[in-house]
Amino acid sequence: MQSTRDIKKRIRSVKNISQITKAMEVVSATKMRKSQEFAIRARPFATASLELLNNLLLRTETLPPFLIPRPVKKTAVLVVTSDKGLAGAFNANVLRKAEAHIAGINIPYTLVTVGKKARDHFFLRNISIDRSFWGFGDYTKIQDTLPVADYLLNGFSSVAWDELYAVYTNFRSTLRQETVVKKILPATREGLEDAVRGILPERGRFAEGVSGESKFAAGYNFEYAFEPSSAEILESLIPQILRMHLHHIILESNASEHSARMVAMKNASESAGELITDLSLVYNKTRQAGITRELTEITAGSTSTA
């Protein structure tokens, strides 16, 4: 049986851990809300861009290369994880989904990772990584993610690969994150609309005013005169929307990471509280048993003396 001193040390240790997990829970909740705010700031630009895109597509028959499907000889897979741990099953779910997707690919593929966890996971398994990115921080701006987007878009433009899939965690609500595999390239108008629609979460204060109907139809029917041509504008506009889409994927993963860590730390704090209660009960029982034993010894000594 443990001594009361050992039990008190363990209770003190668990209390210290509980204070750390509670602090991490609060920090993660704050970072999660700020990550959502960063994503939402891009929505007005994204909505206006899609409205312009719809008008352009109605007035031109020439599509930019990013919208044109082609025979797939090689595919690219983007895997987005975090740089840090202590986020429950957040990274494990993404990596498991990525491995399942890669296992189903029957053609040559290129693997691109975002986050140290994905890089280390594939490196330890001797799976070749074409390019790895990390260190974007908690509040990533679009300038920070441009190297990722430009690398992927340039690879598609140069026919280094013919399609692009992203494996990441989609933020649905504070308590719900969904690991998804989404096709990014070649892009479709419906896919781009879905990406912008997903900027706002389904629930919470940031979800106010969102409905299932499309928000991207033009609110006017003017006849446009394009300068330069509509085809040239599309060639410039589509990459911008795709860069925003890839930036948003990283923000989604970032918000999901903080949400998962917040839930994990909350569960850890609750478990620590239950453990402290159990240890306190054991401490009291051990202490009482010690007192009873000492009283018995004193009584026995007095009886033998008499």
SSE map:
Layout: H1 4-41, H2 43-58, E1 75-80, H3 90-103, E2 109-114, H4 116-124, E3 131-133, H5 142-157, E4 163-173, E5 176-185, H6 189-197, H7 230-305
Parallel strand pairs: 1-2, 1-4, 2-3
Antiparallel strand pairs: 4-5
Helix pairs in contact: 1-7, 2-6, 2-7, 5-7
Q: What's the oligomerization state?
A: single chain
Element pattern in H and E = HHEHEHEHEEHH
The tally of domains stands at 1
| CA-based shape | elongated
Structural class: alpha/beta
Kindly state the percentage of residues in helix. Answer: 55-70%
Please tell me the CATH architecture by its name: 3-Layer(aba) Sandwich
pLDDT < 50 runs, ≥5 residues: 208-218
What is the arithmetic mean of pLDDT?
A: 84
Could you describe the largest sheet, including whether it forms a barrel? 5 strands, mixed
In whole angstroms, the N-to-C terminal distance is: 33 Å
For the largest sheet, list the strands in their spatial order. Answer: 3-2-1-4-5
With helices defined by DSSP (H or I, 4 residues minimum), what is the helix count?
A: 7
Give the radius of gyration.
28 Å
- What's the total count of β strands? 5
How much of the sequence is in beta strands? Answer: 5-15%
**CATH class membership:** Alpha Beta
CATH superfamily: ATP synthase, F1 complex, gamma subunit
What would the CATH topology be? Pyruvate Kinase, Chain: A, domain 1
